[in-house]
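One such shown below:
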Amino acid sequence: MNILFITADQWRGDAVGYAGRTPVKTPNVDAFAEEAVVFLNHFSQASPCSPARAALYTGLYQMNNRVCRNGTPLDARFDNIARAARRAGYDPTLFGYTDQSADPRHYAPDDPWLRTYEGVLPGFTLRARLPEDERQWLSWLGARGTHFADSTEAHRPVGVPRGTISDAPPAYGADETQTAYLTDEWLRWHSEQDRTRPWFAHLSYLRPHPPFIVPAPYNTLINKDQVPGFQRAKSPEAEAALHPLLECALSLTPAASFVRDAPGLVRDLPDAAFRQIRATYYGMVAEVDAQLGRVFTALKQTGQWDDTIIILTSDHAEMLGDHYALGKGGFHDQSQHVPLVLRVPGAVEGRRVEAFTEAVDLFPTLLDLLGVAPLHHPDGQSLRAFLGDTPPEPWRDAVHWEFDFRDVEAGTTETWFGLGSAELNLAVVRTKTWKYVHFQALPPLLFNLVDDPAECINLAEDPAHLKTRLLFAEKLLAWRARHLDQTLALQQLTPAGVRTGTAERTTP
């Protein structure tokens, strides 16, 4: 069986046609979803990219893999999807990036891999790389006759003053995007494969990651007046007053991080600008969908559609103007709720799963499908039972994620809060009704998601909700205790040899 593992960076879980919540157009993903299983309440475990992907690739929560920020090394001892695929006889091949920083203990001090956070996950064969400088993409464009000095120039809108937030397109066309480049590279590689041997490819698309710009016709596909409203407080000041972390983020995040040369802070953008950014983002999603259509068509034309396991997901999501924010990070759902569509030939089709699932579930799921044992004890659970007639019981009634907001390089947040790097973190436990956010050195948060879906009323200090706060603090503590590393702890050496216990309950 072939394996196609697709990630599209910063893709919100509600920004797909099958979700029915936005005007975004994703006909190819929607058609794919009709032949697959869709997980509607799927959440990533961390952000930004490196921490999110560390959890995705290893099946370990951040508290165990300890990738805290972009640039935090991934411990070389951990198993991952690429290494497991090799044990199953595949040559896992990467198109794009994995953003996993090399373990410096295994490299010479002057090795170039120690000067970038954009390392390659151990086990992958690298076919096409797409780091932040995008040089391979720019070279590909140049060979096609479109030349840019650098990626900053490439992503400037045409015909409007610098820093303008509008629907203006870049100078490159719809068939010249980074997504098109990686798709072309995958198609060429796919045509080279020996059809007698199964293959494994990881298509790691950059888009819809900022900067927020997309070529025609996608730039005007959605009008800014069509986009839904925002989940947020009545003003940036009211939002910032809710918690010190929000005050910090709203005070420090420049708009230019998301729109080239845009002045001021994100929080100060007018409503029309936020709406235009959201409309552009939906166009970026549609552009990714169009390229996915090329991938799906190639599989069908070569007779491999029913011989290929396809996983489509994202590393994390995008705030997209909710809570006066852009980007990812923190405790809001908009940063962590991502799509997951899984198709296994011969399994059920068209199912919609409402149960909570997590990014850490994909590592054990993939290994389960490959018939390979993990080399460490994963924190996630295989989703394979959701593909059959009998969904798994019992199953989790909550999701969790973590966010570490340290700044080891510049010390910006350490200075802002007057705290050490190891104190700047949070953990979330979220059920259908409640969300509790625990900080190591800052005040906690408690939201009733039924009465307050916008998360604007913190009940943590309300005496009437003290019992609920303590209950969820205990739940979070139990979750952490439950997921202490069990790789060797479940084994015991006895006079009769090695005995192995089980981490899972044998009865409901």
In short: Residues 402-500 form a domain with the Arylsulfatase, C-terminal domain fold (CATH 3.30.1120). The first strand starts at residue 2 and ends at 8. The chain has a mean pLDDT of 96.
